[in-house]
Design goal:
The structure holds two protein chains of two kinds. Chain A is of the alpha+beta class. Chain A has one domain: Roll (SH3 type barrels). Chain A has two helices and five strands. Chain A has helices spanning 21-29, 63-66; strands at 11-17, 37-43, 50-54, 57-61, 69-75. The radius of gyration of chain A is 12 Å and the shape is globular. The two termini of chain A are 21 Å apart. By secondary structure, chain B is an alpha/beta fold. Among the domains of chain B are: 21-187, P-loop containing nucleotide triphosphate hydrolases (Rossmann fold, 3-Layer(aba) Sandwich), CATH 3.40.50; 199-281. Chain B is 56% helix and 7% strand. In chain B, helix 10 (290-302) crosses helix 11 (307-326) and helix 13 packs antiparallel against helix 21 (524-558). The chains are: A alpha+beta, B alpha/beta. Chains A and B meet through helix 1 and strand 4 of A and helix 3, helix 9, helix 10, helix 15 and strand 10 of B.
Chain lengths: 84, 743
Amino acid sequence: MTLADARLGEMLTIKQVGGQGGFRRRLLELGLLPGTQVTVKSVAPLGDPIELLVRGASLSIRKQEAATVSVTVELKEQFRSGSP
Amino acid sequence: MTMAWPNAVSVEVPQKPRPPVILLAGNPNTGKTTLFNALSGEAARVGNYPGITVERRSASINVQNPNGSQEKADLVDLPGAYSLSARSPEEKITLEAILGLASNPIPSLVVLVVDAGQLARNFYLLLQIMELSVPTVVAINMIDEVSSPPSMPELSRRLGVTCVATNARKKIGIAELRKAIDQALLSGTPPSINLDYPASLLGELGKIVDVLPESWQLTESRRRPMALWALTSIGDDELRDIPSELRLACENMRIARNDHDLDLEIVHTRYAWIEDCLRHAQDKGLSNPPKRLMSERIDRVLLHPVLGFLAFALVTIILFQALFIGADPLIHLIEMGVSACQSVIVHYLPSGWPRDLLVKGIIGGVGNVVVFLPQIALLFAIIGFLEDSGYMSRVAFLIDRVMRLLGLHGRAFVPMISGFACAVPAIMATRTLERQRDRLLTMLVVPLMTCSARLPVYTLIIGALFPPSRLGGWLPVQGTLMVGLYGFAIVATLGAAWVLGRTVVKARRVPLILELPPYRLPHLRSIARMVVSRSGDFLREAGTIILTCTIVLWALLSFPRAPVHNGPAASALVTQVAQSAQQLPGNARPQSDAERAAETKPIIERSPGAWIGRSLEPVLKPLGFDWRIGVGLVGSFAAREVFVSTMALVYGISDNDTGAEVPLRERMRVERRKDGSRPYSPLVGASLLAFFAIACQCSSTLAVIRRETRTWRWPAFLFAYTGILAWLTSFAIYQGGRLIGLS
């Protein structure tokens, strides 16, 4: 499963950051490394982009790129802004 | 990166008269600019980075020199960056400034500003700077936003560089930071740090180290980090000045280590080091700063599918109102001031062309420049407020879906929408865009928006040439045309963005990475400073060009000097040209002037301006325009609404208290050629409207683009492409209309 099809508020762990080139490197540099916990916090009203909560920061990326990040679900229940 | 620079022992404070350079670096949204202001006091200079039109703010600050006395140092505010890896020329700025490449001076010290709530991510940049062994001091800023701040002595010890806790807004920790800066400048010891990169990676890195260009003049300690930089930057980049051997070596290494995930190896090694460092220096439970919770509550409303868009619409309306109505009183005040100056001089100086030059050319020209200030100041105040509060990122988040269709970043929304008021502040507002290419594309299409200076022209043409009747008994022709023109402008703008973004300013699609920072109260002092600096910038640089244009246009329409009896009409025109832009936005209210009662044949017909109008006739005829419209077009180059007063003067219509528009409208309506046909039919009107909607008939717009791009190439391109497009559209309308039997 990827970040693009994760449900809001699920606590996820990054398995792999796919994609390529500079964009992938930038995601890694921003701390989206395998093993990092991440949550999809919201989706823009027009359906794209999405807002991620990662390492205490809100980052927004488009779904197309989110689909390159594969994740596993840690916690199904709603998770609101608490510390991991 | 081809400029040579002296040997890279940047640890020494240079003994030259040149003051030491201190760079302020950091991720975006770390309060870097506020800290810059806190350190520098009030006097900041604004310039550009070498070779690129990205703003470079610097200020002179006092530091201690080795013999204990004070000396001046240059503090330079670098653009926000997440990492030194660079794919675009903009991102390379930070690296070049830190290394002293590309005609940047070699810095004595880097002050890295980090967000106390985001240490891990912020330390990534710190680590890269430390790897390059550049002397560094760290300001852990916004320390008030974390509940349990890390221990500074422990952090400093682990990192090997001094860390100081600061709160730039409240000016807390600034004295300590200054002391740390002084100490670091005196000792000048560069940090030395060794990360556990995989041995096999380091082994092969030698091949890249070997081909690093001589011109970079790297010291031994910097060669390996620079090879890593090259490896993580060169590939799908837009960088210039990268030698082909280096490109090849990087490519080869990627191929050779195909079985390894190079990027992950490098980034992972760095984060492992950072996490280890932070584990020891801070308590657990830092990840839930109170600001965030508050921000989330606000976002639940502002990013809500319904409420969010309502709020967004409200912000857009406020922006509109401010630019259209809010700036009005100030604009009138400037207008009054300028005419007061003019009447004083007219009163005291003898008449003649030197007085006209002074009154109409110079003072009028200065008025033409100053009149833009209210809108520029307001727009930048609003932008400052949006940026500082964190809402600008939300605007981009909300509207990205739409803007990406145009190949633009969501942030381009504000400059685009400002174009409805006036292209000049809108073009200046493109500075909020990070990529040069995005800025350029926005600048090239914003002048197509229906700016307020077009409205008087539209009102004249629609009022004069279209009947006030209703189509099909209910649809008012004139009102529909006006709305249609707005729609047309939007379609033209979007269409031009779509086409130009795929041809002239083509660039690789860049994926969006947008940080949504916590909401913060805007820092009014910083905003005020920015507004002042932007306005000053406009006055200095675009202002001179606009002034020159006004004087040239004055000359074009006022010589040869008229015999006394038929002079007034021409000088009245010139007054109009000079005063025109003062009437922004929108309401061109011709001013009364006793002089303007000329009944004789206007001198304007003999001016070089008229000659240009007549010479243009063969080009304009296929659009249905006669030479009079040609003269109007020349005049409207000072500002679009001058078209109205120029046309009035061509017809020798005196500009009495009720203004020239009503008699001019009548005159255009009843005008007949010798054969009895109308020179100004609705068809000509439609053709003229289309021409004004598209053509960039505005010297101020061209001047401000010249200022922003530092070249005449782009204003020339804009003028040419809108001119050709306008001509073709008008041609199609006029000739098409004639084909179906309209006259």
